[in-house]
Amino acid sequence: MAFTLYAATIPSYLQILNSVSRLIGKAEAFCGEKGIEPEALIQARLADDMLPFAYQVKSAAVHSIGAIEGVRKGTFSPDTSTPPATFEALRDRIAQAIAALEAIDPDEVETFIGKDMRFEFGTNVMEFSAEEFLLSFSQPNFYFHATTAYDILRMKGVQIGKRDFNGRVRKRG
């Protein structure tokens, strides 16, 4: 089987989003065990000028299924809506992204190749092909936000490690 745009994107989105969902569960359990208000983790930041855990989780969904939806439309703009404010709502946002990604027909993703794609945010406009957008813009952003969510929890003392981030890797056989 030839390597495809679908294979380069969707399975990895699913792998990491499932991990993010489990990380949310671990964060919630940690709050319960330590008597910490959920808000303390949901609004936690690595640095004052960075956005909080909730934003990082939301953005992992935005740069996975949101990127695919953007390619379908031909334009992508960042989601500036308020991030979910509870662990349940964060898990739901990730679950919706997973369900939508699982419903994608692999053949549809191959039709994206060569399609014009535009990123728009205020006066910032970037032109891409769909595959350039997915692989060089959205995918790095996806990993950045998923990693930052992991890092915030790790910094706050949640007992997680690399396996928690990597999740279920795809192996031969």
Task: Please give a handful of descriptors for the protein shown.
single chain, 3 strands, three-stranded mixed β-sheet, Four Helix Bundle (Hemerythrin (Met), subunit A), 8 helices, mainly alpha, 173 residues, 61% helix
Largest sheet, spatial ordering of strands: 1-2-3
At the fourth level of CATH, the homologous superfamily is: dinb family like domain
Count of folded domains = 1
Beta-strand percentage? 5-15%
- CATH structural architecture: Up-down Bundle
Largest sheet: number of strands, sense, barrel closure? 3 strands, mixed
Number of alpha- plus pi-helical segments: 8
CATH topology: Four Helix Bundle (Hemerythrin (Met), subunit A)
Task: Provide the CATH top-level class.
Answer: Mainly Alpha
The helix/strand series, from N terminus to C terminus, equals HHHHEHHEEHH
Radius of gyration, whole Å: 16 Å
Number of strands: 3
Broad shape: globular
Description:
The protein is mainly alpha-helical and 173 residues long. It has one domain (5-166): Up-down Bundle (Four Helix Bundle (Hemerythrin (Met), subunit A)). It is built from 8 helices and 3 strands; from the N terminus they run ααααβααββαα. The protein has helices at 5-34, 38-42, 53-62, 65-73, 87-102, 106-110, 130-155, 162-166, and strands at 75-76, 116-121, 124-129. The chain has a 3-stranded mixed sheet. Strand 2 and strand 3 form a beta hairpin. Helix 3 packs antiparallel against helix 7 (130-155). The longest helix has 30 residues, at 5-34. The two termini are 15 Å apart.
